Amino acid sequence: MNLLNSRPIPRSHAIYTIAVIGFIYVLHVVIPMYSNSSFLSLFADEQTVGYIYMAGAAISMLGFLLIPSIIRRLGNYSVALWLVLIQMLLFWGLLSSTSPLLTTLFFILQTAVISLIGLNLDIFLEVYTDAANVGSVRGLYNTSMNASWVIAPLIGSMLVSSSNNYHNTYVAGLFMLIPLFYLIYRNFPRFKDPNYQHYSPWQLAKHIYKNKNWDKLFAANLILQTFYAWMVVYSPIYLNKVIGFNWDQIGIILVVMLTSFVLVQYPLGKLADKKYGEKEMMIAGFVIMGIATILLSFIHSNNIAVWCIALFMTRIGAATAEIMMETYFFKTVSPRDAAALGVFRITRPLSYFIAPIISIVGFIYLQQSYMFVVVGIVCLLALIPIATIKDTK
Hints:
This protein is mainly alpha-helical and 393 residues long. It has helices spanning 11-40, 46-74, 76-96, 100-128, 134-163, 167-187, 201-210, 214-243, 247-274, 278-296, 304-332, 338-365, 371-380, 383-386.
């Protein structure tokens, strides 16, 4: 990639630019996300859809293990640009393919590339963040991305319901990648990579184990990401096929539900910097999330307001737990430690491996509605590792 002849970007400018990039990045991911499972169900049954997500998770985890060495050789800037270009090609493949096998392959690969671009953005942000403002910066970044989470499902549901054509969501996602590429290309050609640490797999495992709080944090984060993965794949299908909402109504529910992230994460991040430790708020978040998710099993109403409130409460808990874990981890990790950051982010694709297993086993023994009880109990299990984490304050 050719570098632009520009001066290094100022720290504050970089942080706000990365927040905008994060907004666009999430927009390209989420517009098709909540209809992905329905799109795949056009040529695959529900069990096969689960296996497709598991395959995407496996490739993503492999990517997280390999990408630190690639970033160390090529630099975060160049790798980020190449990944965005590859993502454009994969979206184009999803739009043009008429083969179920090729469509499945493109879907699996784009799932992995999405995760790796997110890691690039994490590295950019970590380099420009000073230690005293980790919570505030992460809160700003997450709030920007979560604003995209709020509007993207509504856009996606409108694109689907207008013509019942799931391809429309991938067209929108493809167009989002154009400004994403430009903003990275224009703003970070002079990005100075830290001296990344190099670990063998065995050394990396020892490095993570030496920090006694990381393994506990990773376990809790895996549970949170499993909650997200299960909800993203199965809750839209449940709302549509069991409760009977159409896609316009589901879009409204998702917008209200995801507003919780925009409302709480930035102020909670600032509180974690200035006043409170992360542990107590992390615990509160998982308690709220677990109990609220369990209660979903007992809601049989097709009143849209009831479901808006119920799902909003699950995400209040999730948003609280998420920003506290993000703040805690990035207070304790170095920008040089791309490998440890990759392991932390591996919990996202790993969750897409675990979530289908929960459903495949659960559907054998339980009615579909009672799966929310199972997922809620899983959320409460996060309290076990969190209880022994040493707080940063």
